[in-house]
Amino acid sequence: MVRENAGFETTQEEINRMRAAARALAAMKVDGLVAGFARDGVLLLDHFDAVVATGSSLPVTFHRAFDTLLDPHEAIDRLSQRGRIDRILTGGGDDAAQKRGARLREYVGRAGSRLTIIAGGGVDLELFRLLVEQRIVREIHVGRLARADDTAEGPVSAASVRRLRDLADAGS
């Protein structure tokens, strides 16, 4: 992930540092970059382009800045027109699992074959099960669910990952 602060806005100084980071990551032959910027509910594609343009031709995931957008459907259309963006990481909102699942299903439908929607950001066991059982998305960023102590800072637990893999296998 190419990011300089906890928010989704950035400064020119941060853009310069992120450009250098994107170049360094591309030189390390990573599989792709993750970045995204928004302000007041609007995509900041000029900032995004400035950062990812230096990452060679790596595919890019637009991260959870997407969740702050006023018109996510229009954003899906705009992001799909950027050739290097192949995924959007979104939590689908802060609602209960059923509403988030419905919203993620909408996004997947809107994206069609143009982009992959990745469910992420506060995915709990209830939402994970719903996503798998109803086959709403093909990719889930599990974060805390893969941790030994169910926090963002805890170490990844092989047992937790195995449990999620088993649930995913049972649901498919």
Put the structure in a nutshell.
This protein is an alpha/beta fold. It has helices at 12-27, 45-52, 72-80, 97-111, 125-133, 158-171, and strands at residues 33-35, 38-39, 42-43, 60-62, 85-90, 116-120, 139-141. β6 (116-120), α5 and β7 form a beta-alpha-beta unit.
Give a quick set of tags describing it.
5-stranded parallel β-sheet; 172 residues; 14% strand; TIM Barrel; 7 strands; two-stranded antiparallel sheet; alpha/beta; single chain
Structure description:
- This protein has 172 residues and is α/β, with parallel strands linked by helices.
- It has a domain at 1-90: TIM Barrel, CATH 3.20.20.380.
- The protein has helices at residues 12-27, 45-52, 72-80, 97-111, 125-133, 158-171; strands at 33-35, 38-39, 42-43, 60-62, 85-90, 116-120, 139-141.
- The strands form 2 sheets. It has a 5-stranded parallel sheet. Strands 2-3 form a two-stranded antiparallel sheet.
- A hairpin with a 2-residue loop joins strand 2 and strand 3 (42-43).
- Helix 1 (12-27) runs parallel beside helix 2, helix 4 packs across helix 5 and helix 5 (125-133) runs parallel beside helix 6.
- The longest helix is centred in the first third of the chain and has 16 residues, at 12-27.
- The protein is globular and about 45 Å long.
- The two termini are 29 Å apart.
- The model has no long low-confidence stretch (mean pLDDT 92).
